[in-house]
């Protein structure tokens, strides 16, 4: 099964909110994926087994998997574009 990682500073409030929204959006579109919220400090260990990364904060480095703008999922601005990127990443 595909895996999406959502990371913020603490891995609690913001990333959990975005992870829930991403999970709901994927389910509505018939896409099965595990969506996991983590803190930014543990991102490197989780990124290796993930198919896409939804970033709440700006990452200090580049990753080899698609990285999406998590703020779009919070505000709704530009969200459809990010959803399409996510769907493409999970195909």
Could you walk me through the main structural features you see in this protein, from its secondary elements to its overall organization?
With 91 residues, the chain is α/β, with parallel strands linked by helices. The protein has a single domain, classed as Response regulator (Rossmann fold, 3-Layer(aba) Sandwich). Helix content is 41%, strand content 23%. It is built from 4 helices and 4 strands, in the order E-H-E-H-E-E-H-H. The protein has helices at 13-28, 43-47, 71-75, 79-89, and strands at residues 2-8, 33-39, 52-55, 67-69. It has a 4-stranded parallel beta sheet with strand order 2-1-3-4. The longest helix is centred in the N-terminal third of the chain and has 16 residues, at 13-28. The mean pLDDT is 91. Pfam families: PTS_IIB. It comes from Listeria cornellensis FSL F6-0969.
| Average of the residue pLDDT scores | 91
CATH topology name, in short, is: Rossmann fold
Q: If helices are DSSP runs of H or I spanning 4 or more residues, what is the number of helices?
A: 4
Mass-distribution shape:
globular
Radius of gyration: 12 Å
Classified by CATH, the class is: Alpha Beta
Strand content: 15-25%
Structural class: alpha/beta
Strands in their spatial order, largest beta sheet: 2-1-3-4
Cα(first) to Cα(last) distance is 11 Å
Percentage of residues assigned to helices: 40-55%
Would you report the number of β strands? 4
Contiguous uncertain segments of 5+ residues = none
């Amino acid at each position: 099964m595909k895996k999406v990682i959502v990371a913020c500073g603490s891995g609690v409030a913001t990333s959990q909110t975005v992870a829930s929204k991403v999970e709901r959006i994927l389910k509505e579109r018939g896409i099965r994926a595990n969506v996991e919220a983590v803190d930014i400090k543990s991102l490197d260990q989780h990124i290796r087994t993930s198919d896409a990364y939804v970033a709440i904060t700006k990452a200090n480095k580049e990753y080899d998997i698609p990285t999406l703008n998590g703020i779009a999922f919070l505000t709704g601005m530009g969200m459809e574009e990010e959803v399409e990127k996510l769907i493409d990443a999970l195909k």
